[in-house]
Amino acid sequence: MDHVAQLLLELGLLFAGLSLLGVLARRLGLSSVPFVLVAALALGEGGVVPLATSEPFIEAAAEIGVVLLLLALGLEFSADELFASLRHHGPSGLVDLLLNALPGFAAGLLLGLPWQGALALAGVTWISSSGIIARLLGDLGRLANRETPAVLSVLVLEDLAMALFLPLLVVALAGGGPAAAVAGIGLAVGAVTLALLAAQRQGHRLGRLLASADDEQLLLRLVGLTLLVAGLAQSLGASAAVGAFLVGLALPASFAERARSVLGPLRDLFAATFFVAFGLSTDPRAVLPVLPAVLLLALVTTGTKVATGWFAARRDGVARAGRLRAGTALVARGEFSIVIAGLAVTAGVPELGPLATGYVLVLAVAGPVLTRLAEPRGARGTALTPA
Amino acid sequence: MDLEETLLPGVGVRYRLRTSAGEVLGVVVRREGSAEVAVYDRRDPDRARSVLRLEPDEVDALAEVLGAPRLTQRFADLSREVPGLESGRFLVRAGSRFAGRPLGDTRARTLTGCSIVAIVRDTDVVPSPGPADTLLPGDVLVAIGSVRGLEELERHLAGPA
């Protein structure tokens, strides 16, 4: 078969398959991320449809997927929301870091990973999936609940922490010593502060520069700027993802809303490709042997996330039932655990691939199920989907 | 009345209102313009029990239903609270000399001491209108002032062209 035909057929089947998985996930009230990972694991090993021709495309698209995921993350929150969360829930963010990153780091060392790999695993266990959780809170009709601001604040702080953690991780993975790591984090703190200040003082200029009544123009300008900054960040030795995140942060809230709606579909397409690429690069036979360790780690970090949510909700004066809802809601890990693991795998810690795959598979499913169980009896099955 | 406003990062803003009947009403206004209206569980007051979802156009419709009469109601309340202060509503008739002219031309404040605080136009309300806002025939002006001032304002507005 001719090359182009082969490429198009493979991609067509891939996206059609992803769509079916998405429908299935939605029916079950779950995120599509674990389903996509399982499917990609099956495809990678000469499975049902070997993706031989489209693999180079998928790899390139996956890089763009990470950049767009992080850009969307930066667009998601305004500087004001970040500062407000930091003021009210700074201690919750710290508890979140200590309780959830340390078990990952310890587990990484125990499993014989180099310390850089353990650091990446700490990130994998630390960061909850804001995508899964935000959707879950909406589906369960919990947005008006009193514990919800605490949950969202923890998510915002994690996302801000990602902007500092990713450069640190990239420097560490590149083999830099402690001095380089400190320099890396110094640079990251500076860049994030600068981006936030720019958003507050000069954001409207950036917004005006990009703004256009025409959606196509807006998309081209936004993606153009983001890829330029991401590429520049990558060439400077920081991560492209961080550059994209900073662009998202620096854009003013007034512009962010339109940017989100224009960017949404493109982000979804490329992000799905990223999850596929990550699954493809992981050997499914390597997942089974690490499964006991993964399950144990998942169990421990489920407990620590519940404790984090409990702590954060208690600060807001929420009662026990609400604290439990907040804690279980935070359990789900997803897209950003995969982003962190992806960085480590490409930097030469391949052992992290199966670990992170198994871990996200378990918690992206268990998290939403667990938090549904925290609803009172009778209200459990009734996700508020229109009949 | 106790209205509490809380920022929901990445989602929007949540308002909580304890009604005088003792119930707590929650309203989440999302960034995209849709909203959720919730009533809380009696046994677990942290939990939204029944949630009503409103699309942006439904939010607008509801806001209009609740918002327009409330505005005039508030003026009535205001005048009741301050002794000697009254409110009045004055129709701009089709033949009025002020129909089609800016509000500033009435010089209501200078001549009568009354403030025109809103223009009610069909179902719309222009709160705190400025001197440049044009009056149309059929508009109802909501004014506050002293009883004498309001009487003068009525004569002034109804005066011959």
Describe the structure.
The complex is a heterodimer of chains A (387) and B (161). Chain A has 387 residues and is an all-alpha fold. Chain A contains 16 helices and no strands. Chain B is an alpha+beta fold. Chain B folds into two domains: 2-54, no CATH class; 70-158, Regulator of K+ conductance, C-terminal domain (Alpha-Beta Plaits), CATH 3.30.70. Chain B contains three helices and nine strands. Chain B has helices at residues 56-81, 108-112, 147-158; strands at 2-8, 12-18, 24-30, 35-40, 48-54, 86-91, 115-121, 124-127, 140-145. In chain B, the strands form two sheets. Chain B has a five-stranded antiparallel beta sheet. The chains are: A mainly alpha (387), B alpha+beta (161). Chains A and B meet through helix 4, helix 6, helix 7 and helix 14 of A and strand 1, strand 3, strand 4 and strand 5 of B.
Short synopsis of the structure:
The complex is a heterodimer of chains A (387) and B (161). Chain A has 387 residues and is an all-alpha fold.
CATH hierarchy, class of chain A: Mainly Alpha
Looking at how many chains there are and whether they match, the oligomeric state comes to heterodimer
Sheet/helix structural class of chain A: mainly alpha
Spatial sequence of strands, sheet with the most strands of chain B: 1-2-3-4-5
Which fold name corresponds to the CATH topology of chain A? Na+/H+ antiporter like fold
Could you say which structural class the secondary elements and strand pairing of chain B correspond to?
alpha+beta
What string, H for helix and E for strand, traces the elements of chain A in order? HHHHHHHHHHHHHHHH
Report low-confidence residues of chain B grouped into runs of 5 or more: none
Number of helices of chain A: 16
The level of helicity of chain A is over 70%
Write the layout of secondary structure elements.
The complex is a heterodimer of chains A (387) and B (161).
Chain A: H1 3-27, H2 33-44, H3 55-76, H4 79-110, H5 115-126, H6 130-139, H7 148-173, H8 178-201, H9 203-210, H10 215-235, H11 240-250, H12 253-281, H13 284-315, H14 320-329, H15 335-346, H16 352-373
Chain B: E1 2-8, E2 12-18, E3 24-30, E4 35-40, E5 48-54, H1 56-81, E6 86-91, H2 108-112, E7 115-121, E8 124-127, E9 140-145, H3 147-158
Antiparallel strand pairs in B: 1-2, 2-3, 3-4, 4-5, 6-9, 7-8, 7-9
